[in-house]
Specification:
Strand content: 35-45%
Order of helices and strands: EEEEHEEEEEEEEEEEEEEEEEHE
Shape: globular
CATH class of the largest domain: Mainly Beta
CATH superfamily of the largest domain: Trypsin-like serine proteases
Helix content: under 10%
Number of domains: 3
Radius of gyration: 27 Å
Length: 276
């Protein structure tokens, strides 16, 4: 026996939620298998405490949402670290350089500025259904970096992705040092460092790179030293097989140069420390 004002049929429970406290437009709201008729009324209609309680519960469910047929559950945080694939503004694939905290405690990450600029939204390539997990908040086109502020409730930061580990920051590599990178397109590869590039803040390394690897972390002895910027020369062959070094070197942007610029301008990311 249902209380007055509640009707049941085979598919739904209909609540006639009238009276003061509810303002409706005569339409029908549905959540799961409960349907509530929300109506306007020129005069207050008193309902029992039981009906008011049921109506309150239904409208709370409608207000806070939920999947059809069950209560909503918070999505598990996506896992992101240096080398993870990211999607910028829903259509641009790039690689996350690193993730950690700045001096203000913000969860911060980096990628290339040519992947997107301030205001661009970021999702995890591996879990795009999780939706937006971060927003680009600063950048520098000349030094080719973009600062991403992540939502700590939506992201689980890690220091290792597919065996590629970042154990803090390192100094700029010099000629002869072996550098390694992890990109979402060509994966893991290593090669010798040739030395500084033609532009300030650049380093030339014999690592493999393809579109989508932009922003990929470059490390020496597991210390982050930079991010992939692009190919050294369009006149040399591009990397086809990463284990055969007969391809153009990659240009790496120095993470130290980028962080110095961020700190000098007091931008988000100042005092960045990679997650350990």
């Amino acid at each position: 026996m249902l209380p007055r004002g509640v009707e049941r049929n085979d598919s739904a429970v209909t609540l006639d939620c009238l009276g003061s406290g509810w303002v409706g437009d005569g339409h029908q709201e549905t959540w799961g298998d409960v349907r509530a008729l929300v109506k306007t009324s020129d005069r207050p209609v008193v309902r029992s405490a039981r009906i008011r309680a049921v109506c309150s519960a239904v409208f709370a469910l409608l207000l806070f949402g939920g999947a059809s047929g069950g209560l909503a559950h918070a999505a598990a945080p996506v896992t992101l670290g240096g080398g993870s694939g990211i999607v910028v503004d829903g259509d641009t694939l790039c690689t996350l350089t690193a993730i950690g905290n700045d001096k203000s405690g913000n969860l911060i990450g980096f990628t290339s500025a040519h992947c997107g600029g301030p205001g661009a939204v970021v999702a995890s390539e591996a879990d795009q259904e999780a939706g937006i997990v971060g927003t680009m908040v600063a950048g520098n086109d000349v030094l080719d970096y973009a600062v991403i502020k992540f939502d700590p409730a939506k992201v689980h930061p890690v220091s290792e992705v597919n065996g590629f580990r970042i154990d803090g920051l390192g100094t700029d590599p010099v000629f002869g040092q072996v550098a390694c990178k992890l990109g979402r397109t060509t994966g893991y590869s290593c090669g010798v460092t040739w030395g500084p590039g033609q532009q300030p803040g650049t380093i030339v390394n014999q690592v493999c790179g393809q579109p989508g690897d932009s922003g990929a972390p470059v490390t020496v002895d597991n210390k982050l030293v930079g991010m992939i910027h692009g190919a050294f020369s369009e006149d040399l062959p591009t990397c086809v097989v990463k284990f055969i070094p007969l391809h153009t070197p990659a240009v790496t942007m120095s993470i130290n140069t980028q962080l110095a610029d961020i700190t000098a301008k007091n931008r988000p990311g100042s005092g960045f420390v990679p997650v350990s």
